[in-house]
Specification:
It contains seven helices and 13 strands. The protein is an alpha+beta fold. Strands 2-1-3-4-5-6-7-8 form an eight-stranded mixed beta sheet. Strands 10-9-11-13-12 form a five-stranded mixed beta sheet, covered by helices on one side. Helix 1 runs antiparallel to helix 2 and helix 5 runs parallel beside helix 6. The longest helix is centred in the N-terminal third of the chain and has 26 residues. The N and C termini lie far apart (36 Å). The protein binds adenosine-2'-monophosphate and calcium ion. The site of calcium ion (CA) has 4 residues, from strand 3.
């Protein structure tokens, strides 16, 4: 298993599928009715996932897959790919910036490589465990801030109304304590945003493993402090909603204290 090879394969496939999404979104009229918009995104999601699986299988037969669109195949090599063909689905439907392809590779259960392609901005984020994080091939680092009071913090809101209520209450505590909030709509890109210093921190409840697998590795390889609970709810004893966050190292303790005061973590 060579993590750099897995990273480069993830990146090449993510870039290809990103180009496919960009062509699809340009063909789509954002003024469509809701049901046709849903059909459009479902068709694009499924087609993208199938293309990702086919491309990776051609290079590495026997690897396993877990995908948002339902792909779930066992691995005979120890490597399993965790894929989100479109993260930031709502943005994609509205032709709003902030959608991407996220592809990660896990070896015996540990994520060792990942890539996130943002085709609209022509940015490819990638990382391999122990080899750092990059954007378009250049090394990236989380911000060197030490003042949580001046932090720009990204978050996201669930599709579930009850959870959104809890998220709004947490925000009421958080908002006066930081510089500002950003809600971009793609967990994968938010994690890459921490990695490249576009925001100081990001947190969200109840993500799925394909939303965060690649982005969490990219953020941690960029020096951020990352807690990626999704897919492992049992590790958070006090909450049914697992919390994910990534934060610049100089404000990690203060930010965790703020999450605690906001009722989001143990
Ligand atoms: P998606 O765009 O693939 O649906 C938005 O806050 C971010 O959280 C997106 O990355 C979105 O993924 C993800 N997300 C939020 N709620 C989700 C849910 N209930 N199921 C799946 N993904 C969710
Ligand atoms: Ca997603």
């Amino acid at each position: 298993m060579d993590a750099l090879e897995l990273r480069d394969l993830a990146g090449a496939v993510a870039n290809d599928i990103g180009a496919f999404l960009l062509a699809e979104v340009d063909n789509h009229n954002a003024g469509d009715t809701k049901s046709s918009a849903t059909d459009f995104v479902t068709a694009a999601d499924r087609a993208a996932e199938a293309k990702i699986v086919a491309a990776i299988t051609q290079s590495r037969p026997g690897d396993g897959f877990v995908g948002e669109e339902g792909t779930d195949t066992a691995s005979s090599t120890g490597v399993t790919w965790i894929i989100d063909p479109i993260d930031g689905t709502t943005n994609f439907v509205f032709s709003h910036p902030g959608y991407c392809v996220s592809i990660a590779a896990a070896h015996n259960g540990q994520v060792v490589a990942g890539a996130v392609a943002d085709p609209l901005h022509q940015q490819l984020f990638d990382a391999a465990l122990g080899h750092g994080a990059r954007c378009n091939g250049q090394p990236i680092r989380a911000r060197a801030t030490t003042d949580v009071g001046r932090a720009l913090v990204a978050t996201g809101f669930s599709y579930d109304a009850q959870r959104r209520q809890r998220q709004a209450e947490a925000l009421r505590v958080m908002l006066p304590q930081i510089a500002d909030i950003r809600r971009m709509g793609s967990a994968a890109l938010d994690l890459c945003g921490v990695a490249i210093g576009r925001v100081d921190a990001y947190y969200e409840l109840a993500l799925n493993q394909w939303d965060l697998a690649a982005g969490a590795l990219i953020a941690s390889e960029a020096g951020a402090v990352v807690v990626a609970n999704a897919g492992d709810p049992g590790s958070n004893p006090s909450s049914e909603d697992p919390l994910t966050f990534a934060v610049a190292p100089g404000i990690a303790e203060a930010f965790q204290a703020l999450l605690r005061r906001s009722g989001l973590t143990w």
